[in-house]
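Data availability (excerpt). The following record was deposited with the supplementary files.
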Amino acid sequence: MTKKGCSFNGGICHEIVEPCNGCNRKIEFSSRWYCTAYPDPSQKWKHGSCNLATHVGKGAGSETKVKVNPLKASKRSAR
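Predicted structure:
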């Protein structure tokens, strides 16, 4: 949604959903709130959290573990 209007689906953007409250990407247009990044916010929240949301941080379980080759690790420790 921009000041010129919506360019999605024939000019019809959908309003933000409840989980979008607190995001920096929402904008008020004609006394309604819209997302500036995605025209249909309910689809972004359908399968978990929105990847464009600025108010949602990554959880503690999202740390990636690096797979270490045991042979290379033993060679490094021998040096």
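Summary of structural features: The helical segments are 41-44, 70-78.
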